[in-house]
Design brief:
There is one protein chain. The protein is of the alpha/beta class. The protein has 2 domains: 74 residues; 62 residues, no CATH class. Helix content is 32%, strand content 16%. The protein has 5 helices and 6 strands, in the order βαββαβαααββ. The chain has a 4-stranded parallel β-sheet, with helices on both faces. The chain is elongated and about 60 Å long. The N and C termini lie far apart (55 Å).
Length: 142
Amino acid sequence: MKATWIIENFTKESSYDELILACKELGHKTVEIKGDFKYSDLENINNECVVFNGSIEMSKLVKNHLSPKNCRPICFNTWDNYLCSKYYSHYGNFMFNDRYMMMSLAEVARNKFFVYGNLGKEALIFIRPDSGEKTFQAQLLD
């Protein structure tokens, strides 16, 4: 059985185009998700082996939509590994923002002078959610 590939080409990078072309050349049914996603793009997929390549949020949408249709395996991932608190301590030296602290927003507010004194630049600090699910947009905080 050949897998059906669902590929989200959200960055318009050539590597995604190469993956899509390779899947098609190998005879795999291939669905490309570009920009605007519609569940109707997945309506013809039932009881199939599905492999998804794309963003965290889209993988959840695709998995939730196709799981009741008996499609497997869909996504290989462990959601906990996308938490910053899981991987920053291992890869912190390689990240752009290699000086960081992890705390709740309430703790940032409570310790604002300490946080801004240690991490602030031009009265700004960079914040992001622990989760890769984009519970809020990462941003500079004044």
